[in-house]
Each structure stands twice: as C-alpha cells, then as structure tokens.
Amino acid sequence: MASSVVMIASWMVLVLGLVMAISTTTQVEAARTFFVFGDSLVDNGNNNFLATTARADSPPYGIDTPDRRPTGRFSNGKNIPDFISEALGSEPTLPYLSPELKGDRLLVGANFASAGIGILNDTGIQFINIIRMYKQLEYFKQYQARLTDLVGYEEAQRIVNDALVLITVGGNDFVNNYYLVPYSARSRQFSLPDYVKYLISEYKKLLQSLYDLGARKVLVTGTGPLGCVPAELAMRSPSGQCASELQRAAALYNPQLLEMINELNNEYGANIFIAANTARQTTDFIDNPAAYGFTTSKVACCGQGPFNGLGLCTTLSNLCPNRDANAFWDAFHPSEKASGIIVDRILRGTTSYMSPMNLSTLLALDTTART
User: Fold this and answer.
1) pTM given for the model
2) Marked catalytic residue, from 85, 333, 339, 355
3) pLDDT digits (tens, 9 = 90+) for 330-339
4) 3-state class of 265 per DSSP?
5) pLDDT given for residue 370 in this prediction
C-alpha cells in the first residue's frame, strides 16, 4: 500500500512537472517578437554606441529605473516601446548595436531606433553620427541574416512575419529640419504644404520597404502636437500657448499620413499598417493635465529656461521632485507616466485614437487566425 502511494505521488510530481514545462514553453512561444524603428521617442540606447551629441546616457536620465541609471532612453524611466513590450509579455528589446543582442536574445526582437533621425536623410545633420532610416532598414536585413543562422530560413521568416513592428518618425523633419533655423534649406525649397506632401511620399517608401522585408503588423505613430512641447514654448511662445506654425504642420501632416496608410492597406489587401493618432493621444493630457494626474503639461521636469525648455537635461538642470507630476520629462520627450498613457490608448483606444483598430484588437485577431 505504501509503495502504491509513493508511485502515485511520484506520478503526480512527474505530470505536474510536464504541465509546468508545457506552460512555460507556451508563454515563451506566445511572447511575440518586437521590432522598433524611429527616433528618440523610441530609441532604447543605440546612440550610446555612437559618437553623437544626441544621447541620453548621463544622469538624470533613467532616474526612475530600478538602478536609477541612464539607459539611453530619453525618459526618466520607461519609454513607449517598453510599455508595448510589457503588453506583449516580453522583456524590453535591446538596441541593435548592443553587444548583448545575440543568441536567444534575437528572438525577443531588436530596437533599431536612433535619436535625431527623420524620414529624410538630411534631418538631424547637426547630430552627425546617427542611424538614419535607410541604415536602420539595412540593420534589419542584417538582423534577419543573424536570425536565419540561429533558427533557419523558414522559421526566421515566420518570426518576422508574425512580429509586431513599431515605427515612430517624422517629428524631427519639422523641428530639426524645416523649422530648425529661419530660412532653412528645406523651407526655401518647399512651402509647408508641399513639404508635407514630400515627407508623406518619402515615408510611403519606408513603409513599403518594411513590407518588402517581411513586416506584416506595423504600428505607425503620427506626430504629436509639435508646437506644445516645452522646447517650442520656450523658443516661440512666451505666453505658453502652443506655437501655431508647428501646430499647423502637424495638422497638415497627420491626416495625410493616415490617408497614405489606408492607401497602402488597400494596395496590399490587408490591414498591414495601423495608425496611432499620437496628436489626439497627447493633446488629451496637454489640454487637461489634471484629469490625468499631472500638475503641468507645459513645464518639463528636467531642463532650464522658460518652461525648462532650453538646452539639454543634465545634472546642472532644474529637476522636479516628482516626475509623475509632469507630462514632459525634458524639452521634447514625455515622462514615463505620459508614455504609459499613450500606450494605453494604442492598446485600447477607440477609432478616434487608432485606425482601423487598436493594437489589442489587431493582436487578438492575428492570434485567432493562427490557431
């Protein structure tokens, strides 16, 4: 009798172990690979490995991370890709240039973003050594070759096709190009409406390249309210009202971006690209900061000058004691709390925030189609 009890107990332990192993495997397989392209809003630290002034590798950046150290993110803590990774049930993507991105870490995905870049290659020329969009796409090709070496060609293609892709680019083409200086080269070449049309045509080529490289679920963010960031308030609007010319640029750009995305989806016969109305998502807490728990949506937490909007965020800058009270961390970038609000809209927002559907719906439909 005793031996029977021991055998039953041993069998139960074995079954429990198998169940736990299967459960763990399922969780790992369910963590969708994630790729990130774009600028400083989504850079996880690539610029740390480059000789450029567009870096966030010094305190007080990262002050609210677990070890209170800068990570290369332009944030006090997490940024938009980090919150999306959490929603996917995955660890944060590593910068593509990180030496830690090897072996099984490739299965998590990669972040190719680089602070300072734009749709156009001449955007951000003052930062010199940054990973422009054409180079980010070249790195994506390199990544796929490395992934193929790890898992084989067919599995690599499946991983890329099933992956989520985030691309955030375009804002710098206005603030660090067209409006960078009075009478900039691009402003002499184009009227604002014509410049926007040119940007959209060039952006379309980038999205087509992503599709050609295997991307099938691409989240495209528009520009935020460009004239409302602390840097532009400090330089263009002493009254604290959003700078009208930059607001006009965003108002021209975002609807045309959505139209272009709809055209691409029609061409491909599927909802490959989903558009995030970043301007609406951000304007919500800029117009009514108290409703979202912020004390201010005009003054950056870290900086100097009017609205803390001038210069870089450094150890010599003004620094707010409670980062959750400020919608903006520095002169251009949202605080960790604000990034979380933006991602919540991306995941669960109505069609006024997301088109043609939010990210949760897209992923649920895709999971259903694969099972």
Assistant:
1) 0.91
2) 333
3) 999 999 999 9
4) helix
5) 75
